[in-house]
Amino acid sequence: MTGPPASTDDDAEVVAQSLEEPEIFAGLYDRHAPDIHRYAARRLGEGAADDITAETFLIAFRSRHRYDGSHRSARPWLYGIAAHLIGKHRRSEERGLRALARTGQDPVAASWSDRSDDRIAAQAPLAAALAALSPGDRHVLLLVAWADLGYQEVAEALGIPLGTVRSRLNRARRKVREALRLDPSFTPDAMELTPSWTK
Questions:
Q1: Residue 140 has what pLDDT?
Q2: Domains within the chain, CATH numbers bracketed
């Protein structure tokens, strides 16, 4: 007989219990799917976010027997899967960012937040700067900025050394800062739209 779902904040315990009782894995989905969806939507738009979120949790469920139980939070693991899937859509993401940089109009931009049209247009320099980053640098920067992961969590998510996270993040921040300062359309009024992660 199956007991009630695990009521624990310990993701490792939920994953371990789900090996015997697969339906318990739903607790992990309930806890983390909204954040994964929001992150994917910011990167690729609402339509793709549904697919990315579903596939992230399908992959996680199928590979849960390989989960490292020493990691109490599954956030880095799940964001790593999502980042890998988003990476497969790299061209779509770059096209969306370049379209926003050119025109200030892009369906992906509308999903980033509830902004008026003039504020979306002000994001053009930032979109161009993000599009110009290498995929690895963009992953690191946006996992820190949009997923709110710490450096160690980003290292776990992407399976790279902590030093690589630091160097990619420093490089990405520098390139974004340079792009924003050199862009003639960048004004002090746009500063409120410039995230703190570029500083």
A1: 96
A2: 9-88 (1.10.1740.10), 90-199 (1.10.10.10)
